[in-house]
Amino acid sequence: MTAQDLTLLDNPVWHSLQTTHRALAMGTTTAQRYPADVLSFVGCDREASNPLENIQPWVNSEEPVFVVGDLPPLPSHWSVQARLDCAQMVCHQLHTVPPKEPAEIVRLTEEERPEMFTFINSIQPGYFLLNTPLLGSYYGIRNNGQLVAIAGERMRMTGLTEISAVCTHPDFTGKGLAQQLMIHVSNNIYAQGRVPFLHVLSTNERAIRLYEHLGFTTRREIPFWKIMR
Questions:
Q1: Pairing verdict, β 138-143 and 26-27
Q2: Which one of 35, 104, 176, 216 has the largest count of C-beta atoms within 10 Å of its C-beta?
Q3: What is the DSSP secondary structure assignment for residue 135, as one 8-state letter?
Q4: Domains in the chain: boundaries
């Protein structure tokens, strides 16, 4: 994949909704969003003038949504609620590390969505919705039947798939479970002919070190804008 291809990641929500996730897109020719029960992300055509101007019918009043990347002009009565600065990381060649204690990784099913929703939001609240698993495959590790670690796919576009919802129950950190899941999900993405990427808070140094250890490199810093009307 060339550096030119990676420029899709400067506007990942828009390019996901224009390609792989086109069937989920709701909105106008210049701005689109995911369904409210799938993902609270809005993407827009950055080459258009005031691309968010007509997205209002698809966003409820006081519903927070996120714009990833450069923030276009906001329509009147909209405001920025927060800015989250993230490292956008890409992995062209995975550094596989044999686990000390291999865990059984299973693909999670539609019937397990409520459990996934509860588990992820207990650790990383606010981003994973009940139907977020419609975006891609999610995998988990269980201990005595209890879900203790998870990772999966979120935004997907031509040649690229985002790894997301990487989290481990606090009682099971330090056992390499997240690393095993990252390797598993990354290899599945490579098998589809795609390159894995991810977003992580710039302040989350521990996670960044793990991802670097696996071969991910920071492509750029990218903001996530939480906006609302």
A1: unpaired
A2: 216
A3: G
A4: 3-85, 88-220
The overall pTM is greater than 0.90: yes
**Cα three-residue angle 87-178-140, rounded to 5 degrees:** 120
The DSSP output letter for 80 is E
Tokens encoding 170: 């606090």
User: How does 115-150 read in b/e, with b if 16+ C-beta sit within 10 Å?
Assistant: ebbebbbeeeeebbbebbbbbbebbbbeeeeebbbb
What's the pLDDT score for residue 99?
86
**Coil, strand or helix: which one is 83?**
strand
User: How far is C-alpha 141 from the geometric centre of its chain's CA atoms?
Assistant: 19
- HSE-up (13 A, CA, CB side) for residue 113: 14
Task: Decide if 44 contacts 14 (C-beta within 8 A).
Answer: yes
Distance CA 61, CA 112 (A): 31
pLDDT digits (tens, 9 = 90+) for 72-123: 999 999 999 999 999 999 999 999 888 888 999 999 999 999 999 999 999 9
CATH H superfamily, domain 88-220: Gcn5-related N-acetyltransferase (GNAT) (3.40.630.30)
pLDDT of residue 144 exceeding 90, the answer is: yes
pLDDT of residue 72: 95
